[in-house]
């Protein structure tokens, strides 16, 4: 059922909770996980500004999703991690649809109504546009 | 191979490039006008600059998909030149800026940018944001609540419209809406037309009418140098950001040369100096632009719009432009630096704050960068100038051994010499330099001084463990006759 699971992760607390759910799902269905960390324009600007070179940028980003990696490594589930570039919502949707995932697991940031109106909800966008079932972890 | 690459850079993404180019052209217009107003020139000067720079850089730039045009950083540097000497001198300074940047590219000085520490770059973008914001404040002077309401409305549309649709740039919708309200509501507020002339003509080639004398050169050169450095700094930073956003590489020296060519051409066509734009390049990439075609379309469509819609542009109320500029300054500021400020090494935080303070005080980005780089260099020298000296007394031989650890150079020698006890009762002193490095004349001088002072107390000095570089230096310039390095 859920053999090929896409995990959207940015290293936040929410994404760690999502990782745990993705692992449980993968264990239950004997599936594999691909974790993606999406860098948007603002993050790219801040990262480039605060790092000396490409190597350091990459290092810092790997550091950011290290905890997610550790969870996955500890679980024994087959997994891969990628860093993608673009706006979070559309990039996750495009990756999920192009690579025929069976399920997307994504954390909800837990914004209030006003914040959601101003910032928009990535998880809702993904839920709306992805072709496969989406598990939003609260 | 070469033509294949060129074809890819131009026509590898035709649909995405054309669409994003149109979006960027629309987003560029209000900024080009607002930056002209900051510089104190007619809106056409910024619009011509944006057209020329974007079109030229699409051919000769090193970073496909990056947007260059009239910018706030450059506009802020020209204010005094324009106020004191007028537009013609600005055009001449723009051409000279281009020549300097071209030479930077020829001599491959893009690498020199690594000498600008990142805390200075953070200070650079933050102070740029503060200056752009501060430049908007005079527009509020003596205005009624209507001005504040219109600015607030502009900002509300800019930030809330993207929640509903991202098909059109929200800044443009804000400008059209606010302009419509002002026109149809017959509200009396200042407009772009009040700030200067707007001609619906294509730019023409003109040689700036200035006296070609040494005196003129002396007037424009300092401005041109500052413009050249700030322009390249922002362009190369933007290129790195676009590299990262698109996960591709770019040729930084070609970009430096390209920026130079673009500014030379712009100066001859009545435009002000410009550079790459972080915000607009971001809009371009997000809208799907990747190739040179996107930059080319942005420039040409911008000119087309001005020729067709010039009559509308003069009716845009200043309140709408002020709103757009406030958005630009919010977008430029590096907010993450506020969150991490207390976590940074204290010297880095001080360098960042000093850069900002100098820029805000002098209104000159180049002075801030210079101060920041200088201060970083001083902090660096202070950090590595800590020399550790440990002593050991060998009673049997009546000898004291000093083990020196660290870098010996002009900044560290005064502390270093103070660590020796010259009025010692031993017969012999051994200075172990295994873990030290001699860097300059001052280091040799310090060793000479130490030796002379010990000699006054009849103590003999020996050196051990000099590394090859240091020994070479010592033999070349040292007056150490009694030295016996082994």
Order of helices and strands of chain A: EHEHHHEHEHHE
Strand content of chain A: 15-25%
Largest interface: A-B, 19 and 24 residues
Uncertain segments of chain B: 480-486
Q: Which residue ranges of chain A are poorly predicted, with pLDDT under 50 across at least 5 consecutive positions?
A: none
In whole angstroms, how far apart are the ends of chain A? Answer: 23 Å
Kindly describe this structure.
The complex is a heterodimer of chains A (138) and B (486). By secondary structure, chain A is of the alpha/beta class. Chain A has a single domain, classed as Rossmann fold. Chain A has 7 helices and 5 strands. In chain A, helix 1 (13-29) links the parallel strand 1 and strand 2. The longest helix of chain A has 17 residues, at 13-29. Chain B is of the alpha/beta class and 486 residues long. Chain B folds into 2 domains: 2-332, no CATH class; 388-477, Transcription Regulator spoIIAA, CATH 3.30.750.24. Chain B is 65% helix and 8% strand. Chain B contains 20 helices and 6 strands. In chain B, the strands form 2 sheets. A 4-stranded mixed beta sheet of chain B has the order 3-4-5-6. A two-stranded antiparallel sheet of chain B has the order 1-2. In chain B, helix 18 (413-417) links the parallel strand 4 and strand 5. The radius of gyration of chain B is 29 Å and the shape is elongated. The model of chain B is unreliable at 480-486 (pLDDT under 50). The interface between A and B is medium-sized, with 19 and 24 residues.
């Amino acid at each position: 059922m859920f053999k090929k699971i896409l995990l959207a992760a940015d290293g936040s607390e929410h994404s760690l909770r999502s990782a745990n759910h993705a692992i449980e799902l993968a264990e239950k269905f004997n599936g594999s996980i691909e974790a993606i960390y999406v860098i948007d324009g603002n993050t790219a600007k801040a990262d480039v500004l605060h790092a000396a070179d490409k190597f350091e940028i990459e290092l810092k980003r790997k550091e950011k999703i290290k905890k997610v990696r550790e969870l996955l490594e500890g679980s024994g589930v087959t997994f891969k991690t990628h860093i993608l570039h673009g706006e979070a919502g559309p990039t996750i949707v495009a990756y999920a649809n192009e690579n025929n995932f069976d399920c997307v697991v994504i954390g909800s940031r837990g914004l209030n109504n006003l914040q959601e109106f101003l910032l928009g909800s990535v998880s809702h966008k993904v839920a709306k546009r992805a072709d496969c079932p989406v598990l939003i972890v609260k | 191979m070469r033509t294949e690459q060129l074809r890819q850079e131009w026509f590898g993404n035709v649909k995405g490039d054309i669409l994003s180019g149109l979006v960027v052209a629309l987003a560029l217009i209000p900024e080009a006008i607002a930056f002209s107003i900051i510089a104190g020139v007619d809106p056409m000067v910024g619009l011509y600059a944006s057209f020329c720079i974007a079109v030229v850089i699409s051919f000769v730039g090193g970073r496909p998909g990056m947007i260059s045009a009239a910018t706030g950083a450059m506009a802020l540097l020209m204010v005094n030149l324009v106020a004191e000497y007028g537009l013609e001198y600005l055009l001449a300074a723009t051409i000279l800026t281009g020549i300097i940047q071209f030479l930077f590219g020829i001599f491959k000085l893009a690498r020199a940018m690594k000498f600008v520490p990142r805390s200075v770059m953070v200070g650079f973008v933050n102070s740029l944001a503060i200056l752009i914001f501060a430049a908007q404040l005079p527009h509020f002077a003596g205005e009624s609540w209507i001005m504040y309401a219109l600015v607030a409305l502009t900002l509300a549309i800019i930030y809330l419209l993207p929640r509903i649709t991202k098909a059109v740039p929200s800044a443009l919708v804000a400008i059209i809406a606010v302009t419509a309200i002002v026109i149809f509501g017959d509200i009396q507020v200042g407009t772009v037309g009040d700030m200067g002339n707007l001609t619906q003509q294509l730019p023409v080639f003109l040689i700036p009418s200035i006296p070609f004398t040494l005196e003129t050169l002396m007037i424009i050169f300092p401005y041109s140098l500052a413009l050249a450095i700030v322009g390249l700094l922002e362009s190369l930073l933007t290129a790195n950001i676009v590299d990262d956003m698109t996960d591709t590489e770019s040729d930084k020296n070609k970009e430096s040369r390209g920026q130079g060519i673009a500014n030379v051409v712009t100066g001859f066509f009545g435009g002000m100096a410009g550079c790459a734009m972080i915000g607009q390049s971001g809009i371009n990439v997000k809208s799907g632009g990747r190739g040179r075609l996107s930059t080319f379309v942005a420039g040409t469509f911008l000119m087309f719009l001005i020729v067709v819609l010039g009559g509308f542009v003069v009716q845009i109320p200043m309140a709408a432009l002020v709103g757009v500029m406030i958005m630009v300054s919010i977008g430029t500021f590096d907010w993450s630096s506020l969150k991490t400020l207390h976590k940074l090494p204290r010297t880095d935080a001080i360098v960042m704050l000093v850069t900002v303070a100098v820029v805000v005080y002098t209104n000159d980005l180049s002075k801030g960068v210079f101060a920041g780089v200088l201060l970083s260099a001083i902090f660096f020298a202070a950090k590595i100038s800590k020399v550790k000296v440990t002593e050991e007394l060998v009673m049997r031989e009546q000898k004291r051994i000093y083990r020196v650890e660290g870098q010996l150079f002009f900044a560290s020698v005064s502390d270093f010499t103070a660590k020796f006890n010259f009025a010692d009762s031993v017969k012999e002193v051994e200075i172990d330099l295994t873990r030290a490095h001699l860097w300059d004349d001052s280091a040799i001088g310090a060793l000479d001084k130490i030796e002379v002072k010990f000699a006054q107390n009849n103590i003999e000095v020996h050196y051990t463990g000099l590394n090859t570089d240091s020994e070479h230096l010592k033999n070349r310039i040292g007056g150490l006759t009694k030295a016996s390095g082994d």
